[in-house]
Design brief:
Blueprint (H helix, E strand, L loop, with lengths): L1 H13 L20 H20 L4 E4 L2 E4 L8
Antiparallel strand pairs: 1-2
Helix pairs in contact: 1-2
């Protein structure tokens, strides 16, 4: 699944125009009580990272405010 999303990121970069991907943030809240919930959290976190790897910019929206995320390879 994560490989497929990485391929999607590559295809989005190759096309002309702007692409916007909207997803849920997972991992900052409570740990799900059941194995399926934990698996969902882990897979979605990996999917989000795969999309971010192909993105020009990424934002976290908190209380209606856009917070631009810095690429870790930019040397935090």
């Amino acid at each position: 699944m994560v490989d497929e999303v990485g391929d999607l990121g590559v295809r989005l970069r190759e096309r002309s125009g702007t692409a916007i991907v909207v997803t849920n943030e997972v991992g900052s809240g409570i740990v799900p009580a059941n194995p399926l919930g934990r698996a969902y959290r882990d897979v979605l976190g990996s999917v989000n990272q795969a999309i971010f790897a192909s993105a020009n910019r990424a934002y976290l929206v908190v209380a209606g405010r856009l917070l631009q995320l810095q690429d870790p390879s930019d040397g935090l």
